[in-house]
């Protein structure tokens, strides 16, 4: 029986990258596997400079969008990380298994720490230990599979390493998880900077398609996407990153294959036009359902309440077992 865990952090409005790289597959495939859990990982949003009211708002909106994208609480568990204490409890134990060197090698830490320092800010200790908390998210539930975009692969590898190390030192406690990725759009790039990931916390608005962008805004952003200096429409991520990104987005939205699609288009303009319409069509049902759910906030709250209860019951035995295995005296 497969157990699946994944999460999204409320650091910005959710993007087309989040949707194509992760959320859509959670709804189409992953929630149908036994015991799938999907989490708004709000503790992770505190690792960089944050506005408390905004994190709360984005957490609620993120949960609503998970349901709008098709997650069904009858099939899976949708919850908020901070509602389940087991994440923080386990994170500390894993900090006692992870090393400082391992943390400093994480690509996202290096990038984000450099960005904070360039802004003149200081780097929160929690940014360094973030991947340990992420490992705790996964290991607490005994997840076998972690469906994520490509940018999270290194973090899932760390979760594997920590699980193996803990098991070797203290006896078998954790399932060793593995990352799974979508066939295309595993890394959707910023439309204005096709060498950078389309990230929700980035500042470049025109290059990011948000899930709640109005159709005309989506069209404008896609039609203004940066393309490459050549003329030919070819699927070549190295030589033509802008065009390759559009082909991948189009393929992900229409179920095609980027290489095959490159043969269909003679001009960048026609590729952009079809991509824009394909994105609008993919987002339409999500936006409609989001509107309905916003009219019924009690429903979303109820889903999160039940979800936290179910998640707690699933995580507690594993985390309690880890407490015992590592040498802590059980409370009587
Ligand atoms: P986050 O919130 O940055 O992103 C959520 C999911 O969306 C994917 N994603 C993308 N996929 C393709 N192209 C993009 N441009 C793009 N941007 C984001 C991410 O790969 C991710 O799957 N650390 C995680 C959250 C997390 C988590 C976990 C995930 C915390 N604990 C445990 C899985 C399991 C993160 O920051 O995702």
From TrEMBL:
An individual GO BP term: tryptophanyl-tRNA aminoacylation
SUPFAM superfamilies: Nucleotidylyl transferase
Keyword Ligase: yes
GO molecular function, one term: tryptophan-tRNA ligase activity
InterPro entries per the UniProt record, alphabetical: aa-tRNA-synth_I_CS, aa-tRNA-synth_Ic, Rossmann-like_a/b/a_fold, Trp-tRNA-ligase, Trp-tRNA-ligase_bac-type, Trp-tRNA_synthetase
Primary localization class, coarse: cytoplasm
Binding site for ATP: 9-11, 17-18, 149-151, 188, 197-201
Top class in the EC scheme: ligase
Keyword field: Aminoacyl-tRNA synthetase, ATP-binding, Cytoplasm, Ligase, Nucleotide-binding, Protein biosynthesis
Quaternary context: Homodimer.
Protein name listed in UniProt: Tryptophan--tRNA ligase
Organism: Streptomyces resistomycificus
Gene (UniProt): trpS
């Amino acid at each position: 029986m497969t157990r699946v865990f994944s999460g999204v952090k409320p650091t910005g409005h959710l993007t087309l990258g989040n949707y194509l790289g992760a959320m859509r597959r959670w709804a189409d495939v992953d929630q149908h596997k036994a015991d799938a859990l999907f989490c708004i990982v709000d503790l992770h949003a505190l690792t960089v400079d944050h506005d408390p009211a905004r994190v709360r708002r984005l957490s609620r909106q993120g949960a609503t969008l998970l349901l709008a994208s098709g997650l069904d609480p009858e099939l899976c568990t949708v919850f908020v990380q901070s509602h389940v204490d087991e994440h923080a409890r386990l994170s500390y134990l894993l900090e006692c298994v992870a090393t400082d060197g391992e943390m400093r090698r994480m690509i996202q830490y290096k990038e984000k720490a450099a960005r904070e320092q360039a802004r003149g800010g200081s780097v929160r200790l929690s940014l360094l230990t973030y991947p340990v908390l992420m490992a705790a998210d996964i290991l607490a539930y005994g997840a076998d599979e972690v469906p994520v975009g490509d940018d999270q692969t290194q973090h899932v590898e760390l979760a594997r390493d920590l699980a193996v190390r803990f098991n070797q030192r203290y006896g078998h406690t954790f399932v060793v998880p593995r990352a799974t990725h979508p066939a295309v759009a595993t890394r959707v790039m910023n439309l204005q900077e096709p060498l950078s990931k389309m990230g929700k916390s980035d500042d470049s608005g025109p290059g990011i398609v948000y899930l709640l962008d109005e159709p005309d805004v989506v069209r404008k952003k896609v039609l203004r996407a940066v393309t490459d200096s050549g003329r030919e429409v070819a699927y070549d991520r190295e030589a033509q990153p802008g065009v390759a990104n559009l082909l991948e987005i189009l393929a992900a939205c229409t179920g095609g294959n980027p290489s095959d699609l490159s043969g269909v288009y003679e001009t960048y303009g026609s590729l952009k036009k079809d991509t824009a319409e394909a994105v609008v069509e993919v987002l339409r049902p999500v936006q409609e359902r989001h509107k309905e759910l916003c009219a019924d906030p009690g429903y979303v709250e109820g889903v999160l309440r039940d979800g936290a209860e179910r998640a707690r019951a699933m995580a507690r035995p594993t985390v309690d077992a880890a407490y015992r295995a590592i040498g802590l005296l059980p409370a009587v």
